[in-house]
Each structure stands twice: as structure tokens, then as C-alpha cells.
Write a structure and sequence with these properties.
The protein is α+β, with helices and mostly antiparallel strands. It is about 55% helix and about 15% strand. It contains four helices and six strands; from the N terminus they run H-E-E-E-E-H-E-E-H-H. The longest helix is centred in the last third of the chain and has 38 residues. It starts with 6 loop residues before the first helix and ends with a helix. The mean pLDDT is about 90.
Length: about 190
């Protein structure tokens, strides 16, 4: 079967929607669940010799226990900047240092806090859905313009719009699955 002149738009839609899904997954990783997850440190940058440096680039981050993050700097000089960075952050987790490693103890979540995190997760997923719908709208507009300028026939445009909707539905479903798993993760005691 010959390639459709609209295939490039379908591929573009999939690529851009994949990026939206990845962004939602990244955001979900930053939402605390009561278990240690190194991704909560992804946005933190320590002032390492005058340069804001991601913690992952100057230390090993491990999870020795379900509710403990262990940060082991490769250079002893990075210990204090990492500790300062964590204290200044909005994580609300006090770093415990023994001079060699930093331990972050993740406290048990209260039911109110769990509900706040579920709301935050819903908000992040809705932002992902909006991004996906925006991609759909842009692709649909392009297909309609090509039909209006007679570059493609009406029946092909109609099939193209239906295909874009199917792709959109597929990606919205993926976001719903991500939300379902995250909600289950947060509410699990």
C-alpha cells in the first residue's frame, strides 16, 4: 500500500505526543509516594565550585531501604554543597550527614498529604492531556488547510482526521494508565 501524504503528520503527532507522555512520567516521578525515589532530586543543583551542578553528576544516589535515599558524593568537597542544596529545596526532607554520605529519610505520608499528592498527580496528567489535545488540534488544522487548498482530497482529509483522533485516544489512554498507577502507588499504605 502506498504511503499516504498524511503519514508525515501522523508520525509528527506520535513523536510530539510521546514527548508529552515522557514529560508526564517525569513529573510523576517527582511526586512523593512515601517510598524513596531518586528522581525527587532531579531538579536540585548544588553549588559545586561555583557552578550549579545536578546532584546526579557529582554523587551516587541509591535506595538502600524503601524509605531512605543515600547520596554519596564522589568528591568530599561536594558533601556540604549538596547538603545546603537539599536544605534550601522545597523537598521538606532534612539531610543527615555523617561526613561521607547524606541520608534522606522519607517520612510516612499522612492521609491528607496523600490526597494532596493525588490532586497534584491529576493536575500533571491533565496538563499532559492538554498538550496531547493541542498537538491534535495543530495537526487537524494542517490537514484541513491542505484540504481547503485542494492539496489532498476530502475523503483523505476525513480519514486523516479520524486517524489523528485514534492516535490522540491512544495517548490519552496511556496518560490515564499512568495516573491510575500513580494514584494506586500514592494511596498504598
Amino acid at each position: 500500500m502506498p504511503a499516504s501524504p498524511l503519514d508525515i503528520y501522523f508520525k509528527d503527532a506520535r513523536d510530539r505526543m510521546d514527548k508529552a507522555i515522557q514529560l508526564v512520567k517525569d513529573e510523576m516521578g517527582k511526586i512523593r509516594t512515601g517510598r524513596a525515589n531518586p528522581s525527587i532530586l532531579d531538579d536540585l543543583r548544588a553549588d559545586y565550585y561555583g557552578t550549579p551542578t545536578p546532584i546526579r553528576q557529582i554523587a551516587t544516589i541509591s535506595v538502600p531501604e524503601p524509605r531512605v535515599l543515600l547520596i554519596q558524593p564522589w568528591d568530599k568537597g561536594a558533601l556540604e554543597p549538596i547538603e545546603r542544596c537539599i536544605k534550601k529545596s522545597d523537598l521538606g526532607l532534612p539531610p543527615n550527614s555523617d561526613g561521607k554520605v547524606i541520608r534522606l529519610n522519607i517520612p510516612q505520608l499522612t492521609s491528607e498529604r496523600r490526597q494532596e499528592f493525588v490532586k497534584l498527580a491529576h493536575k500533571r496528567c491533565e496538563e499532559g492531556r492538554i498538550a496531547i489535545r493541542r498537538v491534535r488540534q495543530e495537526i487537524n488544522d494542517t490537514i484541513k488547510k491542505r484540504e481547503k487548498s485542494h492539496e489532498i482530497p476530502e475523503d483523505l482529509a476525513k480519514r486523516g482526521l479520524e486517524q489523528v483522533q485514534q492516535i490522540t485516544d491512544e495517548f490519552i489512554k496511556k496518560i490515564d494508565e499512568i495516573m491510575h498507577h500513580k494514584e494506586k502507588d500514592i494511596l498504598e499504605v
